[in-house]
Design brief:
The chain is mostly helical. It is built from four helices and four strands, in the order αααββαββ. The chain folds into two domains: about 140 residues, Helix Hairpins; about 60 residues, no CATH class. The two termini are about 20 Å apart.
Length: about 240
Amino acid sequence: MNDIREQIGILVEVQDVEMEINKADRQIQSLENEADALEHAAGEYEDRVSQEKTALDDLRKSYRELESESKINAAQIVKSNEKLRSVKTNKEYQSILKEIEEIRKKNSAIEDQMLERLEAIETAESTLNEKQSELADFLRECKEKKESLLVKAQRERQAVETLNEKKGQVSAKVDSKWIAVLDDVKKKVRGLAVVPVQQAICMGCHLNIPPQLFNELQRFDEIRYCPHCHRIIYWKEQDSE
């Protein structure tokens, strides 16, 4: 076999292995991104439930404050009633009665607020219990999915290790200078660095190459490049059919 033909064949094989590695790397990244997204979603769900719990705690605190205020007012009414027994003038008597009435009105409004808080607390507790149950199910589902994704990612990493070993074995068959050339071309072009020429058309940029270059390619006497995209190009024998 012509040496250049063989060298190009090995470069194509190296390129094929690199494509498999890149594909596996992208798959690993995709799996890890999906796992991160699940973790993020779980964190957001936990935050929402935590906010609802905080809101419920605030309602309970507000209820306790109202309850405390109501007890203070009730005690004040008791004291005021006791004072009534010792008043000496009608004016003072009427003043205390007015004070008691105002406290009772205030307490009535507080009791209304307490009832509203109790209803809100009951609704919030029911909602929170439901959300906590849903959260537990969601976290369990996220954990299972994440574990599955990470297992798949680990399999892909093992595949990459195997492919890297294969790449090393294949690369060892070709002159190291051509591996350097391949790496240099890869930096300059997008996609494949080694492409065939079919019917005088570069399969990298899909432009026609000059007839003389097409004839020279068929000699396989040196590595040649597309004059348009600067990829390494080679002739495939089916063009002669």
